[in-house]
Amino acid sequence: MSGEVNGVRETVVVARHLLPAGMQPLRGRFEVVEGGLDATRPRLLELVPGAAALVADPAVPVDAELLDACGPGLRVVANFAVGYDNIDLDACRERGVVVANTPDVLTQATAELALALTLAAARRLSEAERDLRAGRWTGWDPAAYRGLELRGGTVGVVGLGRIGLRYAELVAALGAEVLYVARSAKPAAERELGARRLELAALLEAADVVSIHAPAGPETRHLIGERELGLIGSGGVLVNTSRGSLVDERALAAALAGGRLGAAGLDVYEDEPSVAEELLAAPNAVLLPHIGSASVASRDAMALLAADSVIAVLDGREPPSRVA
Ligand code: GLV
User: Is residue 46 located within the same domain as residue 87?
Assistant: First the structure.
């Protein structure tokens, strides 16, 4: 049973904030310290020495410096997210620190958000609402705000993992044809959804909507740049709920401003929480503040899963989802 070493409670440092669903199981057994949402890097470096576990999130870079500040007692980093590009996995491995993430419990919420962004961008919801709120709506107009209908349209899914697959199922249920890019073929999706696997360039050219569901890393940085945006084209929609680094944001803003891309729906950005001025000013962009997994059910389940990972490793067991 974890919790105490020589009669002293072990310390779990939550770098920023953990919901009560995750705090509750931890508080009973450990000394839990929380940095708060506004914890700066220097504050975090002050907070972590002596931690047996660290709960991080996508806004917390976990690198050699932070791991060394924790000290040799650190045994697990539990990331409150499915993505773990904020964590230097090699540095964790070198120090014998286990890394866990929170997959599955956020698949539906994130796929639904990608669908919401798809519909919002394709039907120009942000632009229409902005006009209404600003008093620019002058009456029903048959020609105004015409957009793209998913039924009969073609949706390209870049990355057919758990979230990409759920998103593909949702758009297929609305009558869209599904194309996908993935490292390996997905026979079940081909059989059940009629999905077709293509090379990236061919998918971009064929799709009306392109939705990105691939992980961040050096090999996917700026996967979608000027050339790729040109292939999606002036009638096309780009949706990104994965990580900002996959899209060259300046090229995206320029393509929207120049009418070379039809619309974009984004939940993630290259330098969160700042969003490039060009993107804020871009027409036909629906911009959300990284809320893909933010359903009540999903965030509670993620918090609980992060806590379970901490408890498992400090108990000497495997965490529910280990990435290193
Ligand atoms: C959120 O961005 C996640 O990776 O879960």
Answer: yes
Residue 70: its pLDDT value, please?
98
Tens-digit pLDDT profile for residues 282-298: 989 999 999 999 999 99
Residue closest to 165 by CA, chosen among 123, 211, 206: 211
Q: Are residues 178 and 232 both part of a single domain? A: yes
Q: How many CA atoms lie within 13 A of 247 on its CB side?
A: 29
Q: According to the 3-state scheme, what is the secondary structure of 255-285?
A: HHHCCCCCEEEECCCCECCECCHHHHCCCCE
**Tens digits of residue pLDDT in 113-172:** 999 999 999 999 999 999 999 999 999 999 999 999 999 999 999 999 999 999 999 999
Q: Domain tally for the chain?
A: 2
| pTM for the structure as a whole | 0.97
Closest residue to atom 1 of ligand 1, CA basis? 81
Dist. CA 141 → ligand 1 center (Å): 40
pLDDT, tens digit (0-9, with 9 covering 90-100), for 178-229: 999 999 999 999 999 999 999 999 999 999 999 999 999 999 999 999 999 9
274 in the same domain as 126: yes
Closest residue by Cα to residue 16 from 303, 311, 323: 303
Segments forming the whole domain that contains residue 263: 107-287
Closest CA to 145 of 128, 159, 132: 128
Active-site amino acid positions? 243, 272, 290
Spell out the alpha helix ranges (H) of 16-106.
20-27, 41-47, 64-70, 89-94
Contacting residues for 208 by C-beta, under 8 A, at least 6 apart: 122, 148, 153, 154, 155, 235, 236, 237
* Mutation probe of ligand 1 site: the residue of 16, 85, 293 with most atoms within 8 A of C-beta: 293
Residue 227 inside a domain? The answer is yes
Helix (H, G, I), strand (E, B) or coil at 111: helix
**Taking a C-beta distance cutoff of 8 angstroms, is the pair 210, 158 a contact?**
yes
Instruction: Identify the CATH number of the domain in which residue 27 sits.
Output: 3.40.50.720
Of ligand 1's listed atoms, the one at least distance from the Cα of 302 is: 5
